[in-house]
Amino acid sequence: MKRKSLAARVALPVVLSLGVALTAIAPAHAKEQLTVDLVNEPSSLDPHQQWNPDSYYVYRNIFDNMVTRDNDGQIVPQIATEWERLSDTEVVFTIRDDVTFHDGTPLTAEDVVYTVKRITDPEFGSPQLGQFNKIVNAEVTGDNQVTLTTDGAYPALMAQLVKLSIVPKHIASTMTSAEFNEAPVGSGPYVFENWDRGVSVTVIKNEEYWGDMGPFETVVFRGVPDAATRVADLQAGAADLVVTLNTDLAQQVESGGKGKVLTVNTERVAYFALNSALAPLDQPDLRKAIGYAIDREGIVEGLLGGYPQVVDQMLSPAHFGWAEGIEGFEYDPDKARELIAGLETAPEMEMGLATSPVFDQRVVQAIQQMLTDVGLNVAINTTDMATWLKDQQTSPEQAPMLTFSRWSCACQDPDGIMYPLLHSSSNWSRVTDTEIDALLDEARSELDEEKRADLYAQINRKAVENADILPLYQAAIIYGAADSLEWQPTSNESLFLNRMSWAE
Asked: Is residue 20 part of a domain?
């Protein structure tokens, strides 16, 4: 394929070719190319519009972030080399002076300020707004210095900045988000090359990268919804890294003689969302009955091979604020039936359970069966990931009644998972509870770590008490990799291409 110049890629829409067969894209035998099978193609390559896994896997390599986490989970410099808290509400950052965007333009403090103002502008409509809306101002305050001001103390600021991708003002400010999505320009270790819609996204190595170079000349990300096909691709040598395997397929890789399994317990929490804005789920006892009806241990041990860990709170042990002693709903189908029988309004109507192929359908089907066993009428509604995301990011009155999902903020801070899922102001939330809102707002501003952790424990206990949302388990992610691929997966599920290598 002849490569267009970067200027042409920025100025013109990507040519789409829907008719290309998936099998027509094969990895280079010279190992200059890495081929990655995702579940879906990205929803967006504008890093301020989505951070679902399939999008994040790709764009995280096109863009640099304000700061990042190392393989041990510690926050370390990236675009910001150092930072100093001036007061409870002000932090000053020193910005690297040796970084250029992929079009050769230097990255400056002005780009950082523009980035912050872009993602925090309500009219821009970022689904990540709830992660950054405590930032009320960003300004250049010196040579290569940016000062961020927050609305009150904001202890989660650094954890959130881990996923703030810096975009070029001179390009992004002249485009709509949709246009920037078609030709994203960052400063990361890989440069956007092509998006063949329905087939693949291709990136190439940034030869001018300021940091650790990527080891692969070209990386192709393909959307392969069927997990068995992803494994077949790996074993046939048509893919070098495949994501989101279940335990049965992991065993197939291990016994197949080609490829290896890489796994890590993540910060991602699997949960069951109950839309209390809609009848009959506006009845707390029905929500509690659903909690008693779901056999979480059975799901983890029987379906997921014991890899995940059952959790009773909307946090994982990888998060700050994880608390011991919080107890959720034990599996008790008889108790569930008793509560259902005593309801003021019988739940006779069909309740839709929203899901997408990115989620383990064995778990979704098991939950459906468990709810059917206690007398509920539940229908699984499966859509592609883009549609699922659109349906989720709406008002409670328009959202699905039931949802199985898994959430990661890639920040390992409770604010990044609990605020969007529990605060009534979030378009992800199905919860309307003024006490929970007040506690979440207080936790966002509490700099004392012990007090802050206690606030999140209070919120989690209250959410369990009201069955506002049902935590299921800390997800383990299972990858299949070529034998020669060296890589250490991390809890925040980032595919850092420049942290991978081929074995000698």
From this structure: no
